[in-house]
Amino acid sequence: MKSYSNDPTKTTRLSTSFNVKTEKVSNWRDFLRLHCYPLEDYVNKWPSNPPSFREDVAGYCTSVRGLVLRFVEAISES
Predict the structure, then answer these.
(1) For residue 62, is it within any domain?
(2) Apex CA 34: angle with CA 30 and CA 16, to 5°?
(3) Is 16:30 a contact under the CB 8 Å cutoff?
(4) What is the C-alpha separation between 51 and 74, in angstroms, rounded?
(5) Which sign does the torsion angle of CA 21, 23, 27, 33 carry?
(6) What DSSP letter does each residue of 5-34 carry, written as one string?
(7) Sorting pLDDT into bands at 50, 70 and 90, what band is 58?
(8) 3 domain residue, yes or no
(9) Least confident window among 23-32, 51-60, 66-75
(10) Cα angle vertex 42, ends 36, 48, to 5°?
(11) Secondary structure (3-state) at 52
């Protein structure tokens, strides 16, 4: 609950897109949004529990960014 927020401008937030009062169709979606670039600006705002979360997600973000840059390079060459 520490990260829960209805404020869409927060860079790190846990929220849901389901509103029982206004929606007639049950399409529940909970999400944790984490901004991750530049990594050093956001990693300290991420949840610290479980203990390995920040390190694991930082590694994932770094790997995905590297992959995206490789794709962009390949697309540019073609």
Answers:
(1) yes
(2) 15
(3) yes
(4) 37
(5) negative
(6) ---TT-SEEEEES--TTT-SS----EEEEE
(7) very high
(8) no
(9) 23-32
(10) 105
(11) coil
